[in-house]
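seq:
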Amino acid sequence: MTISDGAPHVNAEATASSTLSLDDADIHVCQDGPRDAPALLLIHGSASSTRSWDPLVPLLTRAHRVIRIDLLGHGRSAKPTDQSYALPDQARRVGAALNRLDVKHAIVVGHSSGGAVATALAEQRPDLVTALALINTGPSLDAFIAPESAAIGPSQWPLTDEQIRQFASTGFSRAGYQIPQDLLDEVRAMTYHSLTTTMQATRHYLEQQTLPDRLTALGKPLLVIFGEDDRRWRSSSAADYRTVPGARVELLPGLGHSPLLEDPPRTATPLLAFTAIHAARAD
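struct:
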């Protein structure tokens, strides 16, 4: 296992970017903020990457060591065809990466399907995960809003910018939102195999058991943030998380599936209030 340094991004003075060579894959990670601050792990959703957190990170680094990970098949991590993309395996790699970074405790934040990976990590490593925050993570398949557009076939890959914009349009509350070029490039850099397999893996994980049921069994502090105008998951389904004892649910009016990109300050406000309570154990 080796660590090779990569080129920093977001803030050249603060961001450390590296690739961790784990047992079954190379995983890209970024770190921002004081290395002796409580750890805050950010996990992106499907067809996304560490870059989806770029606007939010500067709002979090004053109080946290912010760690971002490109899941297998995404961003600058490996995209093999012979490794498992199942959520428990994605979570296992995240845990291994945190071990390599010498992180003993962390508050874990997941966006969309990244919230399911965060849940799987907490199931595997309750010693590591202090608390969980889920941003627009559907609690069950019943909450999913089926897309109106036709499914993407392998013959269409790789997609053009316009096709990616159409594919990603439901990730935002309004038509015409200017998706950052970096995020378009990250989708195009995926393989058809990694895109479809990761989406199937999320579906399979939710079919096995709903997230509120999994989280109730874990007994971890939970914050749920949901853009009220989500066009991928019914925002009313956020209420399903209230069955988790002590769960806090925050709806953000006027925002869609990606509040971390649409309005970072409004997303950071409830998140920082939550982490301030639980960060003392995440150091």
